[in-house]
Cytochrome P450 (Rotaria sordida), 259 residues
Amino acid sequence: MIEQEQNETSDAIAERKRTSLIASLVTSLQPDEQIEANKSEEEKKGLSRRELIDEMLLFLVAGFETSSTALAWLIHLMSKHPRVQQKIKAELIGDNEKQDLSLDRLDSLVYLDCVIKEVLRFCPPADGTNRTLTADDRLPITGAQLYKGDIVGIPIVNLARDNRYWSIDPNLFYPERFLGEDKDHHPYALIPFGGGHRQCAGQDLARFELKVITARLMQHVTFGDGGPEINAGGYVHKLTILPKHVGVIIEFDQLSSIL
Ligand code: HEM
């Protein structure tokens, strides 16, 4: 893939850079790795071929498991909240008889945005992230001393469920919160994609994927609760935080529209 990008014409490269992450990274390849390798870390410019391959592998690992986990939670939560499913369906039908999903149409689905946000708040696929201090520091309120090299954990899931930052009970799954009382929540209370300049590089793609997939699913199927045992929820901590017991009944709404 790297060679394919390098063989493009300069016009094509300029164009592809705007839409392809890999094409964009390829333009950052070091012209002479040997020269860069002899420089200090601060002086080095661009990416070595090895670093570029590592980045590409990271996109696969960071991009696949997280998005599929979010989708699994979404399906489980929908099966537990038929009212929410009905509201998504009503918004999708609107005055849109052809049921098209153009970009404009997707943009207009405000309630669906709230649902996706609420799924990522209620059950974030990544429960936390961390940062390594580059200098000694103190916590502002407690004055606790921190040292260069310390690793600080940032508990994404705890922030999203902390009563201090939410007007409506954070232990409730309630997408409407983002249209009302919790519209202006603290920006760092909801960071399913992390924050700062090392935040998730694929978050726009992830939100878009989740929105398109959910809209398509909701146009055709309804998820029913498979019962207290097989659809009990709970979670397992693997690469991401996955739902443990998901067992839903899939009912096709309009068989004729998909045949
Ligand atoms: C629902 C889906 C996703 C979730 C919840 C998620 C979550 C996260 C989180 C929490 C981080 C750490 C951010 C930080 O420490 O501030 C991260 C980093 C990252 N994610 Fe995602 N992610 C998702 C989808 C994706 C996708 C689709 C891609 C790429 C195609 C991707 C690529 C990356 C990369 C490359 C990083 C590392 C960024 C860096 O260190 O500079 N992620 N993600």
Observations:
- The CA atoms of residues 27 and 223 lie 45 Å apart.
- The chain has a mean pLDDT of 93.
- Strands lie at 129-132, 137-138, 145-146, 151-154, 221-225, 233-237, 241-245, 248-252.
